[in-house]
Amino acid sequence: MKIVINGITGKMGAFLYNYLKEKNEYEVVSGISRQTIEMDIPIYHDFTSCLENETFDTLIDFSVYPNCLDVLKQGISNNKNIVSGTTGYKKYDAQHITYLAKKHRVGVIISPNFSMVNKELTELITQIQKLLTNVEIIEEHGIHKKDKPSGTAKFFAKILNIDKDKIHSVRLPGIIANHHLIFADCNQSIELIHKINNRQAFINGIEHAIIEATNYKTIEILI
Predict the structure, then answer these.
(1) What is the pLDDT of residues 109-158, one digit of tens each?
(2) Which position among 57, 106, 172, 218 has the lowest Cβ density within 10 Å, counted as fewest Cβ atoms?
(3) Could you report the per-residue pLDDT of 58-76, keeping only the tens digit for each?
(4) Is the pLDDT of residue 204 over 90?
(5) Strands 219-221 and 189-196
(6) What's the CA gap between 18 and 31, in Å, rounded?
(7) Could you state, in order of their start, the residue ranges of all structural domains in the chain?
(8) Which of 102, 104, 119, 141 is catalytic?
């Protein structure tokens, strides 16, 4: 399976590249980055040049919104499958990307969090909220994360049907991604904390998404 990584010089993009290049079932043929950097694969500053020079199956995107939108739409229009972990997508973005994916018959998976426990955590918090209806979310990320609140926190707020003013953002050095979900009534409270201590936590989820998007043309957009 041939892959291109958009945002290959970012923390997650670089981590993912170093992982995938050691796997026999994947071939990362090139990357896309605004930085000028020497790597053992071609690095393009724009996606058009990549499309003109490389043959690949799937584009993996860990970049910045809204810059990622044109890349994703161009990729889909050129029959490339998409896996994106970039956050910040809007509802109308999801609608348009879904339309394009169906039109061009490609797989597209967009998720704010590829941790494999994310599905189980989502199921758990919806059950707790039935008993403790007051909910606040605290999300903690590194100082370089631009969007506030995080995509994962907004996804949890959507699932729990709570306003975004119930989300509190913290940006500190040395943090990857932590989410605290606090449920309470007048008599008791429950706090769930999900901490990402290593980006390896995302890898299994990303691999699953690559297979789903590429082999089964799955369309799943979580924002």
Answers:
(1) 999 999 977 788 999 999 999 999 999 999 999 998 988 999 999 999 99
(2) 172
(3) 999 999 999 999 999 999 9
(4) yes
(5) unpaired
(6) 12
(7) 2-113+201-221, 118-197
(8) 141
Among residues 104, 130, 145, 217, the one annotated as catalytic is 145
Residue 141 is among the residues annotated as catalytic for this protein: yes
The CATH H-level superfamily of 118-197 is: Dihydrodipicolinate Reductase; domain 2 (3.30.360.10)
- Residue 220 tokens read as 């799943």
Domain over 2-113+201-221 is classified CATH 3.40.50.720: yes
Q: What is this structure's pTM?
A: 0.93
Placement of tokens 């890349």 in the chain: 71
Is 145 labeled as catalytic in the residue annotation? yes
